[in-house]
# Entry
Amino acid sequence: MKIGEKNVGTTDRAVRIMLGIVAFAAGYLYLAAPISYIAYLFGLILLVTGALGTCTIYSLLGMNTLEKKKK
# Structure
């Protein structure tokens, strides 16, 4: 599996996007300055991987949650 190849399934993408939004909200509403930056970074990574449908860590580990199309 190549890095940059789509490997994140629909359910996984939805969960990543929701958790990314939660991380941003927690960083903004509840966390103090140093920890809030970590929450923002974590949320950004989740949002980007969810939106693009590719995860570098999945590629390195050979994982794939993307459903195969039926013919």
User: Anything to note?
Assistant: The chain has one domain: 10-61. The mean pLDDT is 91. Residues 8 and 29 are 29 Å apart (CA to CA).
